[in-house]
Amino acid sequence: MTEPRSTGVQAPGQHTHSKGLSIGSIGALGAVVIGVSTIAPAYTLSGALGPTASAVGDHLPAVLIVGFLPMLLVALGYRQLNRAMPDAGTTFTWASKAFGPWIGWMGSWGLLAATILVLSNLAGIAVDFFYLAISQITGVDSIAELTRNVPVNVITCVIFMAAAAYVSYRGMETTKTVQYVLVSFQVLVLLWFAVAAFRQASAGSAFDATAFSWEWFNPFGIESFSAFSAGIALSVFIYWGWDVVLTMNEESRGTTTTPGRAAILTILVVVSLYTVVTLGALTFSGVSDGEFGLGNPDIQENVFAALAGPVMGPMAILMSLAVLSSSAASLQSTMISPARTMLAMGHYGALNRKYSQVSPRYQTPAYATVVAVVIASAFYVVMRIISENVLWDTITTLGMMVCFYYGITALACVWYFRKEATASAGDFFNKLLAPLVGGILLLIFFFQTIWDSMDPDYGSGSEIGGVGLVFILGMFVFVLGIAAMFWQHHKRPEFFRRRFETTEFPTT
Predict the structure, then answer these.
(1) SS3 per residue for 49-103
(2) Which residues are registered as beta bridge partners of 252?
(3) CA count, 13 A, side-chain hemisphere, 332
(4) So what CATH class is 28-497?
(5) What is the pTM of this model?
(6) How far is it, in rounded angstroms, from Cα 343 to Cα 367?
(7) What's the rounded Cα separation, in Å, for the pair 154 and 384?
(8) Which of 84, 136, 361, 503 is the most buried (most CB within 10 A)?
(9) Which sequence spans correspond to the domains of the chain?
């Protein structure tokens, strides 16, 4: 059977390779909104505040700032690469161009593994808050327990994924409309929560009113490097997702400038929101292991579910709806990245050319979007049935994947621009120093996470033969990626023989 041929070609130094996507359908504001929705502030903070507080105590703001810095440095490198090669393949295309097809393929595997794994997690969280919200609205407590019913949970999760895939399939215009509503709502509720927490702390009615201190912003006050590393690993995860705006570069108005600018704006918006909400939670709850303390292990899986009532009173239902909308919004927008990465891989011959198929009507990666949601759904179903601990431990490996492919992409910027990085002070900082420091830091975090995850206490505490399950799962994902790469080498050896450092980036 003849495979469909991919679309036309232009040299990446001049313009993007046209893949049939909808050109000019997304502007800077729309890109920032989609970037924020992918990061999912309400969902992410609800699950990350407690574990981070347990690791670093009241130095939460310090860890947020330190975790933000490598993201910003890496984003500067992404911006430079996008100016030179605006391509939807991002990590795959740029790493292949800088280091060759093998590293490019594995870099893209890190991105695909991270995004497809997190899709299942987002859908699972959406299911939890869907039934919790219905329970709060109706006053029937038993409805909230439906999420623990495995068949009901799995069916609802698959429906959510299918709905998100449908919106993504219909293109950027539909995506923008949905995201404007969902993102605006969750941001407003988070700010409401922060203001309410500050007011209760100042009025003396907070659970553990804690006076603001600039020492909270001092990273050197954290008691140990191990605690610092644990906090950084968590903070890297909570910023992850901003790079989705780069995968939309071929669909952006101003392909070489808008995506890079939107990526940096996304990170700045998110760090500001995180800081305000974190300060509010700290002043209200403190970091003790008391009933509503951020150090209480019983509430760390979902901090906002525990704190919304004491902080927001009868309007706590809004927080449940905010986390639900946050996870639902991110579920839909996160599909953008793996679909376009697989589209590029099909376009350039690293995968079957079916992946390069674009919907004639909606101009979106038709085949790749369907594959992404099918894999994510199948993964969730299998893991949810086997063990919920295994599912969440697999999600914990996301930190490894994110640090890996961000680090590879940042160093690709350094290598690609190595001959022109000293032309000016600006070029030296943006093309060499910033991405070099950001990439090295993230790769250090990557290896530190691998080392730490060997401890059985890491993650859920599950182990096999005395080795932490998170480490085993992380290594399994990487080995699976290597095996998939060699299989593709067997099927498509011509892709792996190419020298991508030449001016032209060939297609199938």
Answers:
(1) HHHHHHHHHHHHHHHHHHHHHHHHHHHHHHHHHHHHCCCCCCHHHHHHHHHCHHH
(2) 26
(3) 29
(4) mainly alpha
(5) 0.86
(6) 8
(7) 8
(8) 136
(9) 28-497
